[in-house]
Amino acid sequence: MSATPRLKIEGLSLSRGKRAVVRDVSLSMMPGELVALVGPNGAGKTSLIQAVCGLLKPDAGRVWLEGAELVTLGPRDRARALAYLPQDGTVAWNLPALEVVALGAGFLQTDGARPRAMAALEEVEASALADRGVAELSGGERARVLLARVLASDAGLILADEPVAGLDPEGQLLVLERLKARAGAGQTVVASLHDLSLAARFADRVIVMDQGEVRADGSPAGALDTAVLRDVFGLGGRWLDSEDGPVLTLARL
Ligand SMILES: Nc1ncnc2c1ncn2[C@@H]1O[C@H](COP(=O)(O)OP(=O)(O)OP(=O)(O)O)[C@@H](O)[C@H]1O
């Protein structure tokens, strides 16, 4: 008997205004996968992620979380099933970072929310920020705090929209290492990324979107092949062997 996918999407299409921005996307993701969702600006990555969260209503298609259809789940069940890191890092209130992170755990266990939040801040090496107001943090510091908020939840599915945007190089590697570790521990992580070399290095699986469609889906080297790099991104690419595994180098065509 095959395992239940953590996330299943069937025939999802979505319009924004009059524009079709996601077109007939079908995907299935299993526990333990770190999936990089890549594609040029405007490819539809955020729209797809938001449809999976139930924040955008599709024109057609169905979504299941752990075998339960999304439309049958109320907000609490959705929050238990998935943790969402939005691309836009604004926080409405200037709460201390620890309290913002604790909101991510609060749905599950009010008593344990603060220790869990502290552990999540430590996970992204941001415990020194715990008492600082989030409005007074730098963009990169706030990005770490908001990621910690997602890590404080034990939802089976983490949807992270550009989790490394605005982070310094060490921070980018740290965050991807942590997300990979979460996948290794059984969560399913979907992260939209613009850095194809990082996607190639960390992801178990790469999904390439272009103009609302899935153009490739497979291992990093399989999905980011010469034709996809050229046709979707306008890039030339070479895969080189290194001690850390295959490395992708890129150049404009
Ligand atoms: N609020 C909106 N109203 C109308 N159209 C929108 C809106 N937000 C995005 N779009 C359009 O939807 C399409 C897909 O955008 P989306 O944000 O999903 O792409 P993306 O792949 O996440 O892009 P990026 O890498 O730039 O974040 C684009 O053509 C965009 O112009």
Automatic annotation (TrEMBL):
It comes from the Bacteria. Residues 7-236 form the ABC transporter domain. PROSITE patterns: ABC_TRANSPORTER_1, ABC_TRANSPORTER_2. InterPro entries: AAA+_ATPase, ABC_transporter-like_ATP-bd, ABC_transporter-like_CS, P-loop_NTPase. Keywords: ATP-binding, Nucleotide-binding. GO terms for molecular function: ATP binding; ATP hydrolysis activity. PANTHER family: ABC TRANSPORTER ATP-BINDING PROTEIN, HEMIN IMPORT ATP-BINDING PROTEIN HMUV. This is Iron complex transport system ATP-binding protein. It comes from Brevundimonas halotolerans.
